[in-house]
Structures are given as structure tokens and as C-alpha cells.
Design brief:
alpha/beta, Nucleotidyltransferase, domain 5, five-stranded mixed sheet, 10 strands
Length: 226
């Protein structure tokens, strides 16, 4: 019946949902600049399973956001997902972080969706999709300047979405561009994608799967409250 647990830990948002055939049964998430994943992830897993009246043995697969994103966040999510898959003897499904972000909004024809995650300083992780969710350009880690995204600027309406969109505003104050800076990766948008991959048997090797870091590790520290 396609019962999947979805884990999203690639950004500041610690997000967990359990879904049946892509329909969400329960969800928990907390978007905190302090990166609450280590403290909240397993609590959220327990809570969504309890709310959905499911046992861990009822799960048929675990889906995890594979990145790019926070090195530490991705490690936590993937470690939890692999541990559950090993313990329960179920498959692992990996979902592109940027693809699930792109599915958060619907756009009209001849527009381009560009999810952008903050990668420190003037760098972002980005990809580009058409209105049907088809990838137009591979995922990149790139430094933003006035020459960025020129293959789309002034050609189609562009929607930039995610934490990296704020960096782009100053370079492209155009009417043909819409910014969705509030959007963060969420397990909510993973549900349909992971369900489709589950039924297509598009699984990862639990022993060898690694997150899609895209760049070298940079230590992240929690903000100290004053």
C-alpha cells in the first residue's frame, strides 16, 4: 500500500512526514536557525507514526532528501534513514532537495523554476526546472553575479525560490522575475515524489548511499542566544 516515511534535513527545516501512496497522514517540522535536527528528528518520527496509528513495521520504505544542502543536516537525515532501513529490512528512496522545492509552487507555461539554497557568502546551490518539473539544467554550486542565469533572464518569467533568493534580488530587479524567499525544503513535497520512486522500484544501495554534498564540508555552528 506504499507507506513511506519522508525525512528532510538538508536545510534549517527539520521536517518529517509519513504518507500512504503519496497522501500525507501526519507531518511534523520545525524551521530553526539553530539547526534542531539532532534533537528533533527522532522525536518527530515517533510523533508522526503515533498520529498515523502506525508501527515502524508498517513502513515499506524510508525516503530521505539527498541534497545538496547542509553537510551536517544531510548526515543526520541519511544516517537516520539508513539505520531504519537496515533495522526494518526495507528499501531506501532518495529525493532531490531542489526538485522537491520546485514542486512547492505551480507556474504557467513558458516560465522557469529555479530553486536556490544559500551556500554561504555569495554562493548558492541551484537547479532549473520547467513548469512540468523537468530538469532544464544540472545542479550547481555557483557564485552569484550579474552574469548568473543569463540563459533564462529576459527570455522567460523566472521564479527563484528558497533561502538563496535574497542574494539574487540585488542583481536582477526585473518585473519578469518573482522571488519566493520564504520557501524551505519540506517533507511535505517529498511525499508524491518518493511514492512514485517507490512504485518504480527506484531504490538506493543502503550500504553505499551518500548524500549529494556538492561541495566540501564547512563546519556549521549553532547560534548562541543572547
Amino acid at each position: 500500500m506504499g507507506v513511506l516515511l519522508n525525512l528532510e534535513t538538508s536545510s534549517t527545516n527539520c521536517s518529517v512526514c509519513v504518507a500512504k501512496d503519496g497522501e500525507i497522514l501526519a507531518i511534523r517540522e520545525l524551521n530553526s536557525a539553530n539547526y534542531s535536527h539532532a534533537e528533533k528528528l527522532h522525536i518527530f518520527i515517533e510523533e508522526v507514526m503515533l498520529e498515523a496509528s502506525l508501527r515502524m513495521e508498517d513502513l515499506e520504505a524510508v525516503a530521505v532528501s539527498k541534497g545538496p544542502g547542509s553537510y551536517t543536516g544531510l548526515r543526520i537525515g541519511v544516517s537516520a534513514a539508513k539505520g531504519l532501513c537496515y533495522a526494518l529490512g526495507i528499501p531506501l528512496v532518495a529525493v532531490s532537495t531542489l526538485k522537491s522545492m520546485a514542486s512547492q509552487i505551480k507556474i504557467k507555461n513558458d516560465a522557469v523554476l529555479i530553486p536556490v539554497l544559500d551556500a554561504r557568502r555569495m554562493e548558492v546551490y541551484s537547479c532549473a526546472f520547467d513548469e512540468n518539473g523537468n530538469e532544464l539544467r544540472e545542479t550547481r554550486a555557483e557564485i552569484i553575479d550579474e552574469n548568473s542565469f543569463q540563459e533564462y533572464i529576459n527570455d522567460k518569467h523566472i521564479h527563484f525560490l528558497g533561502s538563496g533568493a535574497e542574494k539574487i534580488k540585488e542583481f536582477f530587479p526585473l518585473e519578469s522575475i518573482t522571488f519566493h524567499c520564504e520557501i524551505v525544503p519540506s517533507a511535505k513535497q517529498m511525499a508524491t515524489i518518493s511514492s512514485n520512486k517507490f512504485y518504480a522500484k527506484d531504490f538506493e544501495d543502503v550500504a553505499y548511499f551518500e548524500p549529494y554534498y556538492l561541495k566540501d564540508f564547512v563546519l556549521q555552528t549553532k547560534k548562541v542566544k543572547s
